Amino acid sequence: MGGLFSRRRSHSEDGRQRGRRPPKTVRTDDNDRAILDLKVQRDQLEIHKRKLRVQVGMDEQAARRCIREKNKQVALLALRKKKHHEQLLDETEGYLAKVAELIGSVEMARVQADVVSALATGTKALKDIQSEIGGVEYVDQLLQDNADAQAEMAEISSALTGAGVPEDDADCLAELDRINEELAVDATNRIPAAPKNPLPEVSPAQTKQGKVTKAVEASPATAEPQPAT
């Protein structure tokens, strides 16, 4: 039975260990270890300072008790111990101030080192980009070449635009005559043909009657007379 339970316990522990995530590895360098040592020393000084404060309080209580008991020698001894502990407390507080200042200086130095490293990386990247570009002279040369190419293209365009056809070109003159003939034929085809039969003669009376008829048709219609009331 004991072996069975032990095997079950070992299997359950193995399962829990397999289910756990592996701990993250944190890289540390000498600066990290130095700051860690300083902080450990600071914590130890804090503990020592608290102990000294407790001891100072106990010395004062002992001196008061001896004074109430009229034991002057023991009271003086307790006060001397209190003074000694107070001196140690002052020294400890001074050490704490120095350690805290040193921790701040080291951390600030690390920040400055990171800033300098970032500046160095950025400067190197900027120089690499400038080397890829080719420098100011190369850019000026590119701009000058571009301007020259644009000017040359403008000259070519101007030459192509101004290149006319000579006035005595035979092919162009023949094309002009052909177009004129086509236009003349089109104009002739649009004129209506004259009637083949002669028009009937119109007498003066018919002409006069036709004019009167046209005048009556052009005049407005007269209103009918209203019946008298």
- Please provide the ordered H/E string of secondary-structure elements: HHHHHH
Count of individual helical segments: 6
Task: Report helical residue fraction.
Answer: over 70%
Enter the CATH topology name of the largest domain: Helix Hairpins
User: What is the arithmetic mean of pLDDT?
Assistant: 76
- CATH level-four homologous superfamily name of the largest domain: ESAT-6-like
Number of domains: 2
Determine the N-to-C terminus distance: 145 Å
Radius of gyration: 61 Å
CATH architectural name of the largest domain: Orthogonal Bundle
Subcellular location: Endosome membrane
Biased composition (Basic residues): 1-10
InterPro entries: Snf7_fam
Region (Disordered): 1-31, 187-229
What does it look like?
This protein is mostly helical and 229 residues long. The chain folds into two domains: 28-133, ESAT-6-like (Helix Hairpins); 136-190. The protein has helices spanning 2-19, 30-68, 72-133, 135-162, 170-190, 204-218. The protein is rod-shaped and about 175 Å long. It starts with a helix and ends in an 11-residue tail after the last helix. The relative contact order is 0.04. Residues 221-225 have low confidence and may be disordered.
Topology record:
Elements: H1 2-19, H2 30-68, H3 72-133, H4 135-162, H5 170-190, H6 204-218
Descriptive tags:
229 residues; mainly alpha; Helix Hairpins; rod-shaped; transport; Charged multivesicular body protein 6
Question: Summary?
Answer:
The chain is 80% helix and 0% strand. With 229 residues, it is mostly helical. α2 runs antiparallel to α3.
